Amino acid sequence: MTIAGALEKLMRHGMPFRFEAYDGSTAGDVDSTYTVRLLNERGLRYLMSHPGDLGFARAYVAGDLEIDGIHPGDPYELMRHFRSRLTFKLPPPAELVKVLRSLGLANLIAPTPPPEEHLSRTRRAFEGWRHSRQRDAEAIHHHYDVSNRFYELVLGPSMAYTCAVYPELDATLEQAQAEKFDLICRKLDLKPGQRLLDLGCGWGGMVRHAAEHYGVQALGVTLSEQQAFYAQQAIKEQGLDDRAEVRFLDYRDVTEGDFDAISSIGLTEHIGVKNYGSYFAFIEDKLTPGGRLLNHCITRDNNTSPASAGAFIDRYVFPDGELTGVGRIVSAAHDAGLEVRHSENIREHYALTLRDWNRNLVENWDEALGEVSLGTAKVWGLYMAGSRLAFEEDEIELHHVLAVKPHEDGTSSFPLRPTW
User: What is the pLDDT of residue 83?
Assistant: First the structure.
């Protein structure tokens, strides 16, 4: 049995593309826009040893699997077209054994993963317990300490690596990112002279926007050393040294308190669901009575699915990342003594944001390859396009949860109706 014939037998809906294997065999739709080429035995071993997204990603990232008809910086159309048709089936045991023998049982042994892949969860255990300080620092380093220039090429001048808010469908990415920061400032009701703490501040976009446009004293903390360096330089260039500061620091090590507002934009995904209690308790302790929290977080569409990400995302994108439904976030905030006053799902905005990031990667592809490996650039194209689909189809969501620390007498310092 040929490689193409064997793999076609394992696909539930057949091959909705043209497939060519290194043994000369072909299968699938000869008229398809897309041609998938398996170039060597190592690629076959990746696919056989880990059938599904991890095996495919390994073969593709390593260059053992090529796809004609797409730009690797934006495979969105390919993924959207074949999204529900790329599933495997298990034939009866006797037939499965026949297929595996024809492909070579030795190919069930996994080759060494591509260098862009992070350690497995089991091997990560040697770095510390999941979401220990050491292991969190390593996970953040893996994804964020890549290259500040690479992030500039993908994210654009705003250097905002979180969901933007598009005031109009034809708004630019930069306009949408500015609107995101401004919306958060409005929800927090920031006023000159107030003190803001931004947890997981990235390259300092929120800190700088709030200090410049709302006159607050803003402190941001990040576990990425490259992010902190970039943010500190940007603060100096904008002349905001007297109002803004970014530290290379674990948020749990912030010693100051009595903040009027706390923003957390894209941090909750990294802390672990089991740590929500201590996370919101930390926030409650750092807020002054009447102070507000805005928690901006990717969420699942329910509260019952497993929190851990799939194998591809866990190994290549966000090691140890966890997502859950907004209900668990709201409950954990309430249990910590905060009062949730408003929740908003803006998932469609994240699909638009990812569209624009993919577009930036395509437009800056050659320069991006001067900053990162071809494999890393492919990973980014895959994960952003796949995430765009997931937001569009409501597999994942993006929630703003606005909460307040009530005064001792129970008053909230909130207006009767939203003002933002």
Answer: 77
Q: How far apart, in whole angstroms, are the C-alpha atoms of residue 305 and residue 29?
A: 35
pTM for this model (two decimals): 0.91
Long-range contacts of 151-155 (CB under 8 A, 24+ apart): 151/203, 153/360, 153/361, 153/364, 153/367, 153/368, 153/371, 154/357, 154/360, 154/361, 154/364, 154/368, 154/380, 155/357, 155/360
Strand, helix or coil for residue 301: coil
Per-residue pLDDT at 142: 47
Q: Measure Cα distances from 181 to 102, 164, 176, 315 in Å.
A: 57, 8, 9, 30
Task: Report the distance separating Cα 176 and Cα 388, nearest Å.
Answer: 16
Q: Tell me the two tokens of residue 8.
A: 């076609």
CA 3 vs CA 30, 42, 43, 264: distances in Å: 17, 13, 12, 49
CB count in 10 Å sphere of residue 191: 12
φ, ψ of residue 10 in degrees (nearest 5): -85, -10
Domain boundaries, the chain: 3-108, 137-404
What residue ranges of the chain have pLDDT lower than 50? Answer: 142
Q: Give tens-digit pLDDT for 325-349.
A: 999 999 999 999 999 999 999 999 9
Residue 199: per-residue pLDDT: 98
- The per-residue pLDDT for 126 is 55
Given a contact cutoff of 8 angstroms between Cβ atoms, the answer to whether 345 and 398 are in contact is yes
User: Dihedrals φ, ψ of 25, to 5°?
Assistant: -80, 155
- Least Cα distance to 405 among 261, 275, 233 occurs for 261
3-state secondary structure of 266: coil
pLDDT at residue 164 in the model: 98
346-372 pLDDT, tens digit per residue, is 999 999 999 999 999 999 999 999 999
137-404: CATH superfamily: Vaccinia Virus protein VP39 (3.40.50.150)
Structure tokens at 10: 């394992």
- Residue 59 · residue 46 · CB < 8 Å: yes
